[in-house]
UniProtKB/TrEMBL annotation:
Annotated NCBIfam families: PRK11899.1
GO terms for biological process, alphabetical: L-phenylalanine biosynthetic process
GO molecular function, one term: prephenate dehydratase activity
Name of the molecule in the record: prephenate dehydratase
Catalysis performed (reactions): prephenate + H(+) = 3-phenylpyruvate + CO2 + H2O
CDD domains to which the protein is assigned, alphabetical: ACT_CM-PDT, PBP2_Ct-PDT_like
Gene3D superfamilies with a match to the protein in the record: 3.30.70.260, Periplasmic binding protein-like II (3.40.190.10)
Residues marked Essential for prephenate dehydratase activity (site): 175
EC id: 4.2.1.51
InterPro entries for the chain: ACT-like_dom_sf (IPR045865), ACT_dom (IPR002912), Chor_mutase/pphenate_deHydtase (IPR008242), Preph_deHydtase (IPR001086), Preph_deHydtase_CS (IPR018528)
PROSITE patterns: ACT (PS51671), PREPHENATE_DEHYDR_1 (PS00857), PREPHENATE_DEHYDR_3 (PS51171)
Length: 286
């Protein structure tokens, strides 16, 4: 059996883009496929894996559905981030030719991200739950008229060949992942650029959000993400997920969080983690 502390969990089948992100970011670790995000979180909580790789947003498809609801209640801490370039491949059976294809299978996002090629080849898109799972099904079916959009890794795992590479419409197609652990790993305040992620709820009074966020502006803190979503049964109870540049032990961010706490019902830090090099190697725009 593999060492749980040398294992990283992800949601999806072997060969999924989350699997690829795990292998790219932490090549020294074994990957553990899980059926759902909750299962991936549970694998870390229960000691079956030391880390979990969780997608949070994509530069084309936007944020990953429901993930912001799940993060605060996962019982885990964010200790890192990873940006994974998404290179879609049109995969088919060995010996198959593009001219034979009639249908293409994949996750709805992958199909939508490759509309140009699908239209050019006049293929009928078939929605599947995930890209790697679709690759496994196509390989097992043995029908040369059926293709799948998935990663090159999925092709290697399931014995499919790439009939055409890099078929995505947008060349900037990138997914951002969060790396989760059971215990926080907080960088030293002088270790370099870091991100701080937190959730909060404002009081139900006029201009509460404006007042709560004022401290970030006056203290010169760059907020890179702010998203709201409903919690509970009441439509006026919103929770906010935010990410800012900086360390909570730095005075500007400490003062901003203190002001946020004054105007909020709850503030909870989910993680303090090093910025990925993608943020300064590109313009960082997702």
């Amino acid at each position: 059996m593999s060492d749980p502390q040398r294992t990283i969990a992800f949601q999806g089948s072997p060969g999924a883009y989350s699997d690829l992100a795990c292998r790219t970011s932490r090549p020294e670790l074994e990957t553990l496929p899980c059926r759902s995000f909750d299962d991936a979180f549970a694998a870390v909580r229960d000691g079956a894996a030391g880390l979990a790789m969780i997608p949070i947003e994509n530069s084309v498809a936007g944020r990953v559905a429901d993930i912001h609801h799940l993060l605060p209640n996962s019982g885990l801490h964010i200790i890192g981030e990873h940006f994974q370039r998404v290179n879609h491949h049109l995969l088919g059976l060995k010996g198959a030719r593009i001219q034979q294809l009639t249908h293409v299978h994949s996750h709805i996002h992958a199909l939508n991200q490759c509309r140009t090629l699908i239209r050019e080849l006049r293929l009928e898109p078939v929605v599947r739950l995930d890209t790697a799972g679709a690759a496994a099904e196509i390989a097992a079916a043995g029908d040369a008229s059926q293709a799948v959009i998935a990663s090159e890794l999925a092709g290697d795992i399931y014995g499919l060949v790439s009939l055409k590479a890099n078929i995505e419409d947008a060349q900037h197609n990138t997914t951002r992942f969060l790396i989760m652990a059971k215990e926080p790993v907080i960088p030293h305040p002088k270790s370099g650029p870091v991100m701080t992620s937190f959730v909060f709820r404002v009081r139900n009074v006029p201009a509460a959000l404006y007042k709560a966020l004022g401290g970030f502006a006056t203290n010169g803190i760059n907020m890179t993400k702010l998203e709201s979503y409903l919690v509970g049964e009441r439509f006026n109870a919103a929770q906010f997920y935010a990410e800012v540049e900086g360390h909570p032990e730095h005075k500007p961010l400490r003062l901003a969080i203190e002001e946020l706490d004054f105007f909020s019902r709850e503030v909870r830090i989910l993680g303090v983690f090093p910025q990925h090099s993608y943020r300064w190697e590109t313009d960082g725009t997702l």
